[in-house]
Sequence to fold (161 residues):
Amino acid sequence: MNPTPALSSLQNSNPLLAILWAGLTCGTMDITAALVVYGYFGRPPMRLLQGIAAGVLGSRSFQGGLPTALLGLFCHFFIAFSAATVYLTASRWIPFLLEHAVISGALYGVAVYFFMNRIVVPLSGAIKYPFSLQMMAIGVVIHIFCVGLPIALVVRRCSMQ
Fold:
Protein backbone atom coordinates (compact mmCIF):
# COMPACT_ATOMS: atom_id res chain seq x y z
CA MET A 1 0.00 0.00 0.00
CA ASN A 2 1.23 3.43 -0.89
CA PRO A 3 1.66 5.54 2.26
CA THR A 4 0.38 8.73 0.56
CA PRO A 5 -3.28 7.57 0.28
CA ALA A 6 -3.10 6.14 3.79
CA LEU A 7 -1.83 9.42 5.18
CA SER A 8 -4.38 11.50 3.27
CA SER A 9 -7.19 9.24 4.50
CA LEU A 10 -6.02 9.88 8.07
CA GLN A 11 -6.89 13.53 7.61
CA ASN A 12 -10.50 12.51 6.85
CA SER A 13 -10.80 10.00 9.68
CA ASN A 14 -12.33 10.57 13.08
CA PRO A 15 -9.66 9.81 15.70
CA LEU A 16 -12.07 9.95 18.64
CA LEU A 17 -14.32 7.38 16.98
CA ALA A 18 -11.29 5.16 16.35
CA ILE A 19 -10.19 5.45 19.98
CA LEU A 20 -13.73 4.82 21.23
CA TRP A 21 -14.23 1.64 19.17
CA ALA A 22 -10.68 0.35 19.64
CA GLY A 23 -10.78 0.96 23.40
CA LEU A 24 -14.22 -0.61 23.83
CA THR A 25 -13.33 -3.62 21.69
CA CYS A 26 -9.98 -4.18 23.37
CA GLY A 27 -11.30 -3.55 26.88
CA THR A 28 -14.26 -5.90 26.43
CA MET A 29 -12.25 -8.70 24.84
CA ASP A 30 -9.41 -8.43 27.36
CA ILE A 31 -11.60 -8.39 30.48
CA THR A 32 -13.66 -11.28 29.09
CA ALA A 33 -10.51 -13.34 28.50
CA ALA A 34 -9.21 -12.45 31.97
CA LEU A 35 -12.50 -13.47 33.60
CA VAL A 36 -12.47 -16.79 31.74
CA VAL A 37 -8.85 -17.55 32.69
CA TYR A 38 -9.27 -16.46 36.31
CA GLY A 39 -12.53 -18.42 36.52
CA TYR A 40 -10.74 -21.49 35.22
CA PHE A 41 -8.25 -21.12 38.07
CA GLY A 42 -11.10 -20.73 40.57
CA ARG A 43 -10.91 -17.00 41.18
CA PRO A 44 -14.19 -15.04 41.36
CA PRO A 45 -14.84 -12.07 39.03
CA MET A 46 -15.16 -9.54 41.86
CA ARG A 47 -11.71 -10.51 43.17
CA LEU A 48 -10.19 -10.00 39.69
CA LEU A 49 -11.70 -6.54 39.36
CA GLN A 50 -10.68 -5.61 42.91
CA GLY A 51 -7.19 -6.81 42.02
CA ILE A 52 -7.11 -4.27 39.20
CA ALA A 53 -8.26 -1.56 41.64
CA ALA A 54 -5.43 -2.62 43.94
CA GLY A 55 -3.12 -0.88 41.50
CA VAL A 56 -4.56 2.37 42.86
CA LEU A 57 -5.74 1.41 46.35
CA GLY A 58 -3.35 -1.35 47.36
CA SER A 59 -4.53 -4.41 49.30
CA ARG A 60 -7.41 -2.50 50.92
CA SER A 61 -9.27 -2.76 47.59
CA PHE A 62 -10.21 -6.34 48.52
CA GLN A 63 -12.30 -5.06 51.43
CA GLY A 64 -14.17 -2.50 49.30
CA GLY A 65 -16.84 -4.73 47.81
CA LEU A 66 -18.63 -3.70 44.64
CA PRO A 67 -17.34 -0.09 44.62
CA THR A 68 -13.71 -1.19 44.34
CA ALA A 69 -14.63 -3.82 41.74
CA LEU A 70 -16.25 -1.05 39.69
CA LEU A 71 -13.14 1.09 40.18
CA GLY A 72 -11.10 -1.83 38.83
CA LEU A 73 -13.37 -2.08 35.78
CA PHE A 74 -13.01 1.67 35.22
CA CYS A 75 -9.20 1.41 35.51
CA HIS A 76 -9.19 -1.52 33.09
CA PHE A 77 -11.09 0.45 30.44
CA PHE A 78 -8.99 3.56 31.08
CA ILE A 79 -5.91 1.48 30.25
CA ALA A 80 -7.63 0.02 27.15
CA PHE A 81 -8.51 3.51 25.86
CA SER A 82 -4.97 4.69 26.65
CA ALA A 83 -3.47 1.79 24.67
CA ALA A 84 -5.77 2.61 21.75
CA THR A 85 -4.77 6.28 21.93
CA VAL A 86 -1.06 5.43 21.90
CA TYR A 87 -1.47 3.13 18.87
CA LEU A 88 -3.58 5.65 16.95
CA THR A 89 -1.11 8.44 17.71
CA ALA A 90 1.85 6.29 16.63
CA SER A 91 0.03 5.32 13.42
CA ARG A 92 -0.08 8.99 12.43
CA TRP A 93 3.73 8.99 12.16
CA ILE A 94 4.39 5.35 11.29
CA PRO A 95 2.29 4.28 8.26
CA PHE A 96 3.55 0.70 8.67
CA LEU A 97 1.18 0.34 11.65
CA LEU A 98 -1.82 0.80 9.34
CA GLU A 99 -0.39 -0.93 6.30
CA HIS A 100 0.57 -4.06 8.26
CA ALA A 101 -2.00 -3.99 11.05
CA VAL A 102 -1.91 -7.73 11.80
CA ILE A 103 1.82 -7.99 12.45
CA SER A 104 1.89 -4.54 14.09
CA GLY A 105 -1.07 -5.42 16.30
CA ALA A 106 0.45 -8.72 17.39
CA LEU A 107 3.72 -7.01 18.29
CA TYR A 108 1.85 -4.19 20.00
CA GLY A 109 -0.04 -6.71 22.13
CA VAL A 110 3.27 -8.21 23.29
CA ALA A 111 4.67 -4.73 23.97
CA VAL A 112 1.60 -3.76 26.01
CA TYR A 113 1.84 -6.99 28.03
CA PHE A 114 5.46 -6.38 28.99
CA PHE A 115 4.94 -2.65 29.59
CA MET A 116 2.07 -3.43 31.97
CA ASN A 117 3.83 -6.29 33.77
CA ARG A 118 7.35 -4.89 33.95
CA ILE A 119 6.67 -1.17 34.44
CA VAL A 120 3.06 -0.34 35.43
CA VAL A 121 2.30 -3.18 37.87
CA PRO A 122 5.62 -2.92 39.77
CA LEU A 123 5.09 0.84 40.20
CA SER A 124 1.49 0.40 41.35
CA GLY A 125 0.00 -0.83 44.59
CA ALA A 126 -1.06 -4.11 42.97
CA ILE A 127 -0.19 -7.36 44.68
CA LYS A 128 3.01 -8.84 43.28
CA TYR A 129 2.77 -12.53 42.42
CA PRO A 130 5.76 -14.82 41.79
CA PHE A 131 6.74 -15.29 38.17
CA SER A 132 4.89 -18.07 36.33
CA LEU A 133 5.87 -19.05 32.79
CA GLN A 134 2.39 -20.49 32.26
CA MET A 135 0.66 -17.25 33.29
CA MET A 136 3.10 -15.19 31.21
CA ALA A 137 2.36 -17.31 28.11
CA ILE A 138 -1.39 -17.01 28.71
CA GLY A 139 -1.06 -13.27 29.25
CA VAL A 140 0.99 -12.72 26.10
CA VAL A 141 -1.49 -14.70 23.97
CA ILE A 142 -4.41 -12.77 25.45
CA HIS A 143 -2.65 -9.48 24.79
CA ILE A 144 -1.92 -10.42 21.19
CA PHE A 145 -5.48 -11.48 20.36
CA CYS A 146 -7.53 -9.33 22.75
CA VAL A 147 -5.46 -6.13 22.97
CA GLY A 148 -3.01 -5.58 20.12
CA LEU A 149 -4.91 -7.05 17.18
CA PRO A 150 -8.30 -5.48 17.99
CA ILE A 151 -6.72 -2.08 18.50
CA ALA A 152 -4.67 -2.26 15.30
CA LEU A 153 -7.52 -3.56 13.16
CA VAL A 154 -10.09 -1.09 14.48
CA VAL A 155 -7.68 1.84 14.14
CA ARG A 156 -6.85 0.76 10.58
CA ARG A 157 -10.53 0.41 9.69
CA CYS A 158 -11.44 3.80 11.14
CA SER A 159 -8.39 5.46 9.60
CA MET A 160 -8.98 4.14 6.09
CA GLN A 161 -12.56 5.43 5.73
